[in-house]
Amino acid sequence: MTNGSVTDSEKLNIYVKRTVLGGVKPIELFFEPVLDNDMGEYVAYRAYAKVNSVVTGVLSPSDYLGANVSEKVMVDFTVAVIKKTVAAACELSENGVKYGFISVKCPTSLVYAENLYSKIKVAVALGEAENSGFKPEKICLEFNADVMQTESEKLKSFFSDLRAAGVKVAVSGYGGEEFSIEKLLSACPDVLFTDEKFTRLICDREKGSAVAPILNVAKSLGGIIVAEGVTNDEELREFRTRDCFGFIPSETYRGRIEVKQRLMTFEQLRLGDSNGQ
Fold it and tell me: Quick one: what percent of the chain has pLDDT higher than 90?
């Protein structure tokens, strides 16, 4: 208690306790597959943590990533999600599930968090101790495009600390309004998910020619690109031609590749094969 009031951390503990007593899993991971551009095979996964609470109901990343809670609570929660993702990656390795990377959504506020390096290092070490086949560099901490608005030296230092801790960096919204492309020169993420509006430009007769140069900037700096929100084979063909890593189809995608599943539970992923069957 602080000055007679309940702190954010204590509130979170109360909510979690009530949730557990109610028989609900407090944090549950779901996985969105990244598809191969040629055959549609699953080549990577994007992890989402949903918070199940008997008090607040189900909270998705869009609900809690921008929540007005203290830095400590958000950092502790994010580290818990990272540990859960690492544990999932270890189990997937044991079950022979292949993947290029697993990204997990994180709040931009982590840029200014204290002792983040050591906390992530501990999470990675737990995974390595659990499974010798676990590769921490296949875990990507994913941030929204606004992280690229961070001052250049701070952003460079932040990305360097995450990589030194053993994980990689992913950023969504590439090519969108919030993504500062010039920051790539000082701090290029390892994985970039395109903004869906940028993906739409491929079919724009006037602006479509701008797509290739923007993709090439990131690729020339060592980033791999995932096309997000692909709706048709014309868009997919362009990303395949530009040697992008893979794509995430939109809900309205219609094309030659059969989209088997858009969101998977951990059990579905663990028990299925690399194609989600």
Answer: 56
For residue 14, which of 50, 71, 53 has the smallest C-alpha distance?
A: 53
In 3D space, the residue among 245, 192, 248 whose CA is nearest the CA of residue 217 turns out to be: 192
Core vs surface per residue 125-157: b (16+ CB within 10 A) or e: eebeebbeebebebbbbbbbbebbebeeeebbe
Which residues, 6+ apart, have CB-to-CB distance to 34 below 8 Å?
42, 43, 44, 45, 46, 100, 226, 245, 246, 247, 248
Q: Which pLDDT tens digit goes with each residue over 24-67? A: 467 889 999 999 999 999 999 999 888 776 555 666 776 666 66
As given in the structure block, the two tokens for residue 72 are 């400590």
d(CA 14, CA 141): 27
Please report where in the chains the tokens 């993420």 appear, as a residue: 189
The residues that bridge with 5 in the sheet, in sequence order, are 2
Q: Which pTM was predicted?
A: 0.85
**Is residue 4 within 8 Å of residue 186, measured between CB atoms?**
no
- Please report, in angstroms and rounded to a whole number, the separation of the first and last CA atoms in the chain: 50
Cα-based distances in Å from 36 to 42, 264, 272: 6, 17, 17
Torsion of CA 145, 147, 148, 150, to 10 degrees: 150
CA distances 258 to 154, 198, 214, 275, Å, are 43, 23, 28, 11
- In 3D space, the residue among 93, 161, 102, 158 whose CA is nearest the CA of residue 128 turns out to be 93
